[in-house]
User: Which sequence fits this backbone?
């Protein structure tokens, strides 16, 4: 850490480029996560096909959503399990 | 068989047209046969940046609508005889050309030229879709600003959706002294965010404005400036040559060196 970075840390000051980078990061999380329902449906289908190898999924009670909170995006998946397959 | 490169950015005013003019001239200096297409229909500008505005007889739309042959519309550069411009129509709108027509035009030009550079209009609407239709590769121009990088990110997504993957990035108008002060995003900051391959960096340079005033791309200046060198380097990289990135932080004074040590300068 150089003197400048140390001073910034002590005074709580931030270089404007760091502010720019952080704002950009947040805005892009949001931009990139703006997905179409078809896209989400595709994710859902693929998730089900992977998990179906291990568990029997009730597709009617499976919901996938994308949420935004504080600059981060969360993919929430609720999969209802009918039964768990026996381990081979 | 040549290659069609589209130069795009999303945001306006980041230097697409200047980049097309300079890379086209740079490739011509390297001995390649180059055609530049101004796809910004209704807002043509590449002609004035190239200093060819007084030679226009026919334009892109005339070619597409069959009022002239392609060869009649191509304007030869003032100084480089292997460099040609196909100007945009000024009195038509972006719907005057379709993606299929653009594709056909690019195919035809590829037969005769080593490189075809397409100057894409700003935005993500029809004009953008037309401009990228015939391209083999895309170059994205951005500047170290939040708005320009954000738009570049959007364009990368749209290019991928159009199956033009692996675009390469040109970061324009870097001001080394502002980067040193911590007041401008650095190359690494931008690359980390966009996660695409860097093709080159161009420092902010007054000479660009002077050369645009004269209608002579800066890259062809005899005693070249930093920006001229930057465009030369990028032209060479387009030809597959390995050229190290331009060191825009050179010419450091003793005071600058001391500042770097204590951390008040990059």
Assistant:
């Amino acid at each position: 850490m150089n003197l400048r970075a140390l001073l910034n840390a002590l005074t709580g000051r931030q270089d404007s480029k760091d502010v720019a980078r952080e704002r950009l990061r947040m805005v892009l999380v949001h931009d990139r996560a703006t997905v179409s329902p078809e896209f989400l449906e595709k994710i859902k289908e693929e998730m089900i096909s992977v998990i179906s190898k291990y568990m029997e999924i009730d597709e009617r009670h499976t919901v996938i959503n994308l949420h935004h909170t504080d600059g981060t995006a969360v993919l929430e998946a609720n999969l209802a399990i009918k039964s768990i397959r026996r381990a081979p | 068989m040549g290659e069609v490169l589209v130069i795009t950015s999303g945001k306006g005013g980041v230097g697409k047209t200047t980049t097309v003019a300079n890379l086209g001239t740079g490739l011509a200096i390297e001995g390649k046969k180059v055609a530049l297409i101004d796809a910004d229909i209704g807002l043509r500008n590449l002609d004035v940046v190239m200093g060819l505005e007084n030679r226009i007889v026919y334009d892109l739309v005339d070619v597409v609508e069959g009022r002239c042959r392609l060869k009649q519309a191509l304007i030869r550069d003032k100084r480089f005889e292997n460099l040609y411009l196909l100007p945009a129509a000024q009195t038509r709108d972006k719907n005057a050309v379709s993606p299929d027509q653009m594709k056909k035009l690019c195919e035809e030009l590829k037969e005769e030229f080593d490189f075809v550079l397409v100057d894409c209009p700003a935005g993500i609407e029809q004009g953008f879709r037309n401009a990228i239709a015939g391209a083999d590769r895309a170059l994205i121009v951005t500047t170290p600003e939040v708005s320009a990088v954000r738009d570049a990110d959007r364009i990368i997504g749209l290019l991928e959706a159009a199956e033009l993957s692996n675009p390469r990035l040109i970061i324009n108008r870097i001001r080394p002294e502002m980067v040193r002060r911590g007041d401008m995003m650095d190359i690494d900051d931008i690359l980390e965010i966009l996660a695409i391959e860097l093709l080159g960096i161009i420092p902010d340079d007054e000479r660009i404005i002077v050369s645009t005033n004269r209608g002579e791309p800066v890259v062809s200046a005899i005693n070249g400036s930093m920006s001229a060198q930057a465009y030369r380097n990028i032209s060479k990289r387009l030809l597959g040559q390995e050229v190290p990135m331009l060191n825009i932080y050179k010419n450091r004074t003793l005071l600058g060196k001391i500042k770097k040590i204590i951390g008040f300068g990059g």
